[in-house]
Amino acid sequence: MIEISNLTFGYGLKSLLFNSLNLKLERGHIYGLLGKNGAGKSTLLKNIAGLVVPKAGFCKVNGHKSSRRVPSFLQEQFFIPEELYLPAVNAAQFAKGTAHFYPKFDLDMFWKILADFDVPHEGMLNKLSFGQQKKVLIALGLATNTSLLIMDEPTNGLDIPSKIQFRKVIASVLTDERCIIISTHQVRDLDSLIDTLIVLNNKEVVLNKSVDDILSKIQFVPASKAGSADVLYQESQSMGVNTIVAGREDTFGKVETELLFNAIVDGNNSVLTVLR
Ligand SMILES: Nc1ncnc2c1ncn2[C@@H]1O[C@H](COP(=O)(O)OP(=O)(O)OP(=O)(O)O)[C@@H](O)[C@H]1O
Predict the structure, then answer these.
(1) Segment 231-262, tens digit of pLDDT
(2) Which ranges in the chain are annotated with CATH 3.40.50.300?
(3) How many distinct helices (H) and strands (E) make up the chain?
(4) Which helix or strand (DSSP H or E) is residue 204 part of?
(5) Distance between Cα 232 and ligand 1 center (Å)
(6) Which residues line ligand 1 (CB under 6 A)?
(7) 6 CA to middle of ligand 1, Å?
(8) Which of 13, 15, 17, 43 to mutate to test the pocket of ligand 1 (most atoms within 8 A of CB)?
(9) Three-class SS state of 139
(10) Is residue 195 a contact partner of residue 30, using CB atoms and an 8 Å limit?
(11) b/e burial code for range 66-97 (CB count within 10 A of at least 16 → b)
(12) pLDDT per residue over 2-32, tens digit each?
């Protein structure tokens, strides 16, 4: 669904952020985009959404070059930025103004998600708190029913009940037709939601693997359960899971995303070598 080919991008005369980057993303998945501060996550999302123009190469969504921003591309994608400023209108006016651009907009769904998020329906949106504004935009983005939904740090500013609600709502809207990309530092918020991890590091996509694929190759265990021979990465922590070991057929578990991310950006090549 998304084809990124030889994408080369930099802001102004600054050095390049991406140099011939390639990536393919498919429908029916929730992708988690991870990277250190400044790695270029937001910039990659903006390239996909056609908000910036590459120096070379391209991003295509459903066969349309993003940077051309043709109507058939725009009506099938919704981008929720990290920073947002909602206009001085109420939720009904905001939904009406937006629905116009999205043929599959579902107004009932918008009101339902707002209610689930406990956001007041009345009043001007620009007077809501940051977290409430974020929830309005998430509700709107989901209600557009676009095949591509891009969210940059969506759980930033959400309180704990809202994060739980967010996970429920996102899981319920994923269909085989939809591709959701979430950039985040709050990996623990989204651990159970993301089915494929993408890690950007040193201007490259160093990992693009499904959780199932990852778990078929490595396991996450407490140090006490790790045999010394197969330890790929270890963090010193007093308790809990802190060790990555090469896959063993007798173990099952979940991906400890934070641990995996640390191993990768720490320059630990053993983990990446096993995963590749
Ligand atoms: N509009 C801009 N003009 C010039 N440089 C920019 C602009 N936006 C981002 N940058 C630079 O591009 C680099 C990547 O920024 P980006 O926001 O894409 O990273 P990020 O991975 O999303 O970071 P964070 O995790 O801190 O949000 C940074 O060095 C940043 O200073």
Answers:
(1) 889 887 666 668 888 876 555 678 889 999 99
(2) 2-208
(3) 10, 13
(4) strand 204-210
(5) 31
(6) 11, 17, 35, 37-43
(7) 20
(8) 43
(9) helix
(10) yes
(11) bbeeeeebbbbbbbbbbeeebeeeebeebbee
(12) 999 999 999 987 789 999 999 999 999 999 9
| Terminal-residue alpha carbon distance, the chain | 23
* Ligand 1 atom 25 nearest Cα: 37
> Residue 233 corresponds to which tokens in the numbers above?
């990465």
Percent of the chain past pLDDT 90, that is, above it, reads 65
Q: Which CATH superfamily is domain 2-208 in?
A: P-loop containing nucleotide triphosphate hydrolases (3.40.50.300)
Residue nearest to atom 11 of ligand 1 (CA): 38
Mutation test residue for ligand 1: of 18, 36, 42, the one with most atoms within 8 Å of CB = 42
Helix (H) or strand (E) holding 170: helix 160-173
Average pLDDT over residues 167-186: 91
Of the candidates 140, 266, 142, the one whose C-alpha atom is nearest the C-alpha of residue 201 is 266
Scan for tokens 């009506």, then name that residue: 75
* Cα 40 to averaged position of ligand 1 atoms, centre (Å): 6
Q: What are 121's two structure tokens?
A: 């329906």
Residue with CA at minimum distance from ligand 1 atom 27: 37
- The encoded tokens of residue 34 equal 């991870």
Q: Which residue has a Cα nearest atom 28 of ligand 1?
A: 38
Burial class (CB in 10 A: 0-12, 13-18, 19+), 50: buried
Residue with CA at minimum distance from ligand 1 atom 30: 38
Residue (of 206, 235, 204) closest to 222 by Cα position: 235
